[in-house]
Design brief:
Length: about 240
């Protein structure tokens, strides 16, 4: 892991209020634990294998890949498109503000850690196309600016997301550090293998179409209206 990747990952761990990547699943896990359907970390492992791997890899992982490709071409419209796809698939329309929180927290951390990056470029993209700024979008954009390899950016994100779920479950279930570490290693190994098997797919095609209500008419039907002048190339 590069120095910049380690520093960004440290920012994730440093701020426990940041619901990293897996925020919908953390709340779902809490609910299952409260209801008694999840009573041990082995149950968490089974739950994640059934419900999280394909979602996180094929949606979040491939979205990060797509944002890297769009950033290399200075394509702000495509970045916003991917971000809206993520938001439409994951969050009801009336929960727009809560979906924005995670990305905004990471933006704030990024500005503090990397003051030499002009975050106004990303903010202009989000404002111009009325995008949310989901966590995968902000994560990918920051790592691209830092010159972090795309593969490493994806694996760092997946690691952070898995950690968030397992840490929360271990805390709720009063599991030992040894048990937590063993389960975490197994889940992450499976997650990385899924990414290895999926990473060569086309990034945009791996995300399902979004509802028409989520976009303005010109935005939805005519990508030629977008402005490709948007962000600097990383060193």
């Amino acid at each position: 892991m590069s120095k910049s990747s380690r520093l960004l990952h440290y920012a994730y761990v440093l701020d426990p209020s940041l619901p990293i990547g897996s925020f919908p699943f953390v709340s779902e896990l809490r609910q299952h634990i409260t209801e008694g359907s999840v009573t041990a970390l082995e149950d968490v492992e089974a739950y994640m294998k059934c419900h999280m791997h394909s979602h996180m890899v094929s949606m979040d992982g491939m979205a990060i890949k797509g944002i890297y490709a769009a950033s290399k071409q200075y394509d702000g419209w495509r970045i916003a498109l991917i971000d809206k796809m993520l938001h439409a698939q994951r969050t009801p329309r009336d929960q727009l503000s809560s979906a924005r929180i995670s990305g905004q927290r990471l933006l704030k951390l990024g500005k503090a850690l990397y003051p030499w990056i002009d975050f106004r470029d990303l903010q202009k993209i989000l404002q111009r196309y009325r995008a949310v700024g989901t966590l995968p979008t902000v994560h990918a954009w920051i790592n691209f600016q830092l010159g972090v390899d795309m593969e490493q950016a994806v694996i760092t994100y997946l690691n952070a997301a898995v950690n968030a779920c397992v840490e929360e479950a271990a805390k709720q279930l009063n599991e030992t550090q040894i048990s937590k570490k063993q389960v975490l290693q197994r889940i992450m190994k499976d997650m990385e293998q899924e990414w290895e098997n999926s990473k060569d797919a086309e990034p945009v095609h791996s995300i399902k179409p979004f509802p028409a209500w989520n976009l303005g008419a010109a935005y939805a039907v005519n990508p030629l209206h977008h402005n490709k002048r948007m962000l600097p190339t990383h060193p």
